[in-house]
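Hey L., structure's done. Input below.
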Amino acid sequence: PVERKGRAQFEVHGDLNKCICVAVGEDMTDNQVRVVLTWAEFPHSVVLCVKTPEGKIWKPPHDDKGDELGCTLLPNAELECVHAEGGYGPISVLLKKMLPGRYHIFAKCNPYKMAKGDVGWAQSNAQLTLFGGEQEALEWSGPTHFTHPKEGEAPWWDICFLDVDAKGCVKVRSFNELVEDEPGNRLTTVICKDINGKPVQGVKVLCQADTTAGSQETDETDEEGKLQVLLALAQYTVKVEKQGYINTAVRLMVDLEPSCCEVVVPMVRPEVFSQGQDLLCVLSWGGTDIAELHVETPGRLLKRPVGFEHEFASYDIPMTTPMQMRGSNPKSCLLSRPSQDPLVCMEGIEDRLYVYFKGGRLEEGGLDLCNMQLSIFSYKEGMEAKFNPPPLAENLQHGSYWEIATVKGGAVEANSARCDHDPATGGTYCVRVLPAKDGEREFPANAELVIRNTDDKLIRRFAEPPAVDTADYSVDQEYSLFLNFGRYTFEAVDGQWHGPVLAQNIVYHKNTQPSLGLSMVETREIDAKTCLVTLSWAGKPMDLDLCMRCADGVVSSHTKTDTKGTPVKGVKYENCVSEGFGPKTISLTQQMAGNFKVYVMNKDPKGEAVSFLQCNPIVNIIIYTGVWRQYQIKKPEGRE
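Output:
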């Protein structure tokens, strides 16, 4: 004979039913699971619902006169038996194969009306049993038996989730609570905004479930660009359409807390693209958490203006403005990719995209819970690619960084992965070419700047300092661009100034300052009797002290007078900038005999804690024919 067993837990007191029904069954095999609901003599009208990855198994109660027929058979699940009339049950659903995904089990009863009061779930002695949890292959985690909630009058009994992973392992998430509305649904908000953050009204929205477990909902957004819709817990594809915009689709996961029940859909006009190779990268997500889109653009400058986190701050930026990060959510930037530009070396250089996420959901799963998506649009393809964060790997702590893709020659190559640490391979680097001597001059510095890597490969050539109305402009007399971490040579040339000024083997790394100062001398400001000693460095520390010691005393920026005079005759302090970059300049204006010691001090008066190794100080000794000697700190081998 086949051994059968079951269990029940019940109470006997007061007005409770003095009877129960115990479900018994044999051990399950072949990784099957049987879901059985039983109860007492009352109530009579009961329905059991089991949502599977293939759909929902259920049958309306016998006294339901509606048009709904329910569903009693799916490819891997079936309704085995259901009570005819009266109480006790059982209702049994056989899950013939545990598919990867989520199973949701809940039930409903219509209270039985009696003279002494209604009999609902709280008085029902209802039991739900899951047979099959003993199978080793399922690696079952969680309870297999549930008793009715003791309090409440709501009609729905939300019982549990069965989450099945790719290996077929089952994890039970228990709710065991009474709720007023049918479980498994959540009010969800779809928000449509353009790339500057303005809401878009009248967008047709279609929410299409990825499996048959959900339905489709179609409507239009209101004046705030929003549409609220009640959706079943499932994964959806949200498709939007509106005349004048590119058709767009985003992924939406509707789940319980702490998952976000909101998704932001970027609306893009075709007029955004001025060139066939331009790419628009848009990051969007739901909720109030914060995310930063990082795009590495070697040889070019992607601007990230301060203050653009405000919702309305980027409304007035022309949509065709390239190389400009804009918006708060969505965040976007238009990557302009000129096919031929002699100033930028595009050969072999890749743009790289990654995201940093921070916010209240980080501890619960972060990127997985906010319906985040990176969308890439192009002129030819419209929505060319879309990426969603991969699941958090077991070896990661929080995975708040998400590496997404690289772009080379207009082609997008996915390399989506999560990581705990900043994956940046470089950053924005700025160079300032500054006059060694203070004061007004006939010819302002207008140097050409050439940047090469250690392989002598051209990275970027600036014909002159970027003008205010150009894409590369940051501040006056500053050359800004993205550089990968490494070693570089910087060469500045100006026909009216002594040169070229060369800075070789400059190290750029996460631990160094992302900037460099170069100092040039106008030709007419130096003659055969004059020698200049200049000091320049990075943007920090704010101040370094250039010093000279001889038999007659010490010259430093702290000993000069308002007339540039110093304690040593024939020596003047020509420039004394203390705002980062430099320069500090000492001039020798007459022939002098003896030994002179030139040195630099980093007194760090503001506690900036920036060392010499981090700020790339450069000392040049300049005579009438040009730079006579140059001194840099030699970086220790193996130390970047």
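The longest strand covers residues 101-110. The CA atoms of residues 368 and 389 lie 7 Å apart.

-- N.
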